[in-house]
Write a structure and sequence with these properties.
- By secondary structure, the protein is an alpha+beta fold.
- β13 and β14 form a beta hairpin.
- The protein has one domain: tt1808, chain A (Alpha-Beta Complex).
Length: 203
């Protein structure tokens, strides 16, 4: 989703109270609130493809996917962030009355020109501090490219996958996610790129 900074400093309690009444979603970054706007149909289709594929693969298993209406709370060094990832998979869920998750094992973000610098920098740094996280998956919109940040014994390892023939193995979930399924219904033509190519250079 696109985003814009909201001036002023807010406590967590103030942010959650604002969100409860707000018509649009905002993220919370250590006191600062960032409003989010709508996404392109292409963005939402890629996100939806991931949700459907993982929902089918995880049916009847203890882990389940949550869409972008579910926040994730990140606490580090006494500071808190609340993000709305495009998708997350959780194996140890908070109570059903909770309004956020704390222990995602997988987070997925689909890049947009207005959010890619957050997804590839700020959010990447924050997500990788989550002790339960096994994989942060970052997806391009205009070409079949996935960046896979995968937890290893020595820290997170960055992998890059290109083309629709690839398979992203997810052993911690006992399943996989194919690039063909992720990009089903997406045509990769010159018209698919609606923004400047410079805005899409990988970080």
């Amino acid at each position: 989703m696109s985003s814009a900074e909201r001036p002023g400093f807010f406590s967590v309690e103030e942010y959650l109270a604002i969100e409860e009444q707000a018509l649009t979603k905002s993220e919370y970054i250590e006191g600062w609130v960032r409003a989010m706007s709508g996404s392109t149909l292409r963005h939402n289709k890629i996100k939806g493809n991931c949700f459907v594929s993982l929902s089918n693969s995880l049916k009847g298993k203890p882990c389940e996917p949550f869409d972008s209406d579910t926040r994730v709370r990140i606490e580090r060094e006494g500071k808190k962030c609340f993000y709305y990832p495009d998708m997350q998979v959780v194996c140890q869920s908070n109570e059903l009355t909770s309004i956020f998750q704390d222990r995602p094992v997988m987070v997925i973000e689909v890049l947009s020109p207005s959010t890619r610098r957050y997804d590839l920098d700020e959010k990447l740094t924050a997500y990788l501090t989550v002790s339960s996280l096994q994989c942060y998956l970052i997806l391009e919109q205009h070409q079949p490219v996935a960046i896979v940040m995968r937890r290893t014994d020595g820290g997170f390892l960055r992998e890059e996958m290109r083309g629709v023939e690839g398979i992203i193995d997810l052993p911690f979930l006992g399943c996989s996610l194919s690039m063909r399924d992720i990009y089903e219904g997406i045509e990769f033509t010159a018209d698919c790129v609606q923004e400047s190519e410079l805005e899409y250079e990988l970080g």
